[in-house]
Design brief:
- The complex is a heterodimer.
- Chain A is α/β, with parallel strands linked by helices.
- Chain A has two domains: 217 residues, P-loop containing nucleotide triphosphate hydrolases (Rossmann fold, 3-Layer(aba) Sandwich); 54 residues, Alpha-Beta Plaits (2-Layer Sandwich), CATH 3.30.70.
- Chain A contains eleven helices and 14 strands.
- In chain A, the strands form three sheets. Chain A has a six-stranded mixed beta sheet, sandwiched between helices. A four-stranded antiparallel beta sheet of chain A has the order 2-1-4-5.
- Chain B is mainly α.
- Chain B has one domain.
- The radius of gyration of chain B is 18 Å and the shape is elongated.
- The termini of chain B are far apart.
- The chains are: A alpha/beta, B mainly alpha.
- Chains A and B meet through β6 and α3 of A and α1 and α4 of B.
Amino acid sequence: MNSDGRLVVSKLSKISSTSRGNKALDDVNMDIEAKGIFALIGRNGAGKTTLVRILATQLAPTHGIAQIDGLDVMKDAKQLRKRIAIIPQEARAIAWMTPKQTVLSYLMWRGYGYSEAKKIAVEALARVGLERYMDTLNRNLSGGTKRKVLVATVLASEADVIFLDEPTTGLDPISRKELWNYLSHLGKERFTVLTTHYLEEAEQLADVIGVLESGKLVGLGTLEQLRKMVKYQYSVRAQNASQLLVGANGEVARSRDGSVQLLTTEEEALRLSRLLFESGSRFSISPVGLDDIFFHIVNRNDKAI
Amino acid sequence: MNVRSLFNQIAAGILVNSVYEMRNYPIVLLNTVLSPLSFLILIVFVSRGALIQDAIVGGFIMSMFSNGIALQADLSHLKNDFKLQDMIVSSPASAAAYVAGMAMSELVYSSPALFVLGLLAILFIKAGLISITLVLRSADNDVSHICCTGLHSCNIFKRYSSELCFLKAYLYYFLNLTPCLLSYNVDT
């Protein structure tokens, strides 16, 4: 075993046992540095959770290998489990316990003694701003606060690889942004693998982004690297100016109810902005974002299928 | 894995599944006592006190049987509704430590009932029979559930539950051959 500080996945496939042999993961390959935040994005059923569960030693792959820092998820599962922690999709803080009891008991499951676990639990809850709610029953907490309790459990642990499966799903925008702050800090201290279908979340938090579509990894890299997968670097959105944009140099990404989005070059974006300004249309110009890249990659993949 | 860590992991299961619930909702203490006592009172009432010894032993059996059923339900609840088992699988805790903690927690949860029934047993019947009944019933319900839930997944448990019931039938058959003193442990 070599401690190489990398997340390596090679020819990884998983045939679903519940959906007539469909491939939940299909020949996934990646080799990235196990550092910072790695976000997996994709539609529902794209294979994000399956990949995370394999990496977190919960599922056995049908084919291929996966290694984290030189430890194989199958052969070295016992050693790896000492270094990982996960908040599964739809995990909830246990209703009849308080946040302090939740974090404390999780630490005891990781082998900590009661007194030590209690001390660390209080510190971890304070770090996510839950001092006031430490002894309040989880059932009486808001959805966002309950999520913070779960984040505190993994934060309190000694694990240096953290898996968060859709940690902000169902939260209001303010709670989500609050949680992003904690996740951002978490990513600076430990390697964090995050799945989400909020593209803005991946754009804000991730150092490296993987795009999964129908079990295949169709994009991998930093936001800048993914931007290069799209031919055009600027996005022009305009209302009631479809003729102007459709006839321009570029690629129409989306068109609905008189609103058109065109991906185009910097020069063409500049030219269009003048024309749109003179015609009095409402418009916006921005560099291509992750949502544009995602739609571009997924649409391309759909056409290929 | 040292013994201390193992002890902490088992203690975590006991805390989560019984101690914290009893501490945060003291009403459950009353609940756990009432359930086996209801059986006892019914038998005593119907037999006009003649079957009090049988009623106490029946209360013990009911309490232990409830343990086994509750363990299965609690493991499923914690796995499916709170995803706790997924968190534990991806941690240093072994499946055996997790399930042993949960099984112990059921005994702790029913300890108020066992305490009251124990007092009644000391007053009304010979303790030897009670202790044997307790040990065998605990072994049957809890250990068999430890074995089956040790398979990690409730789905797997469901898949193999018929085989486990088949094995249990043999266990009962074996117990049937034991002396009459222990015949309370045999399903008829």
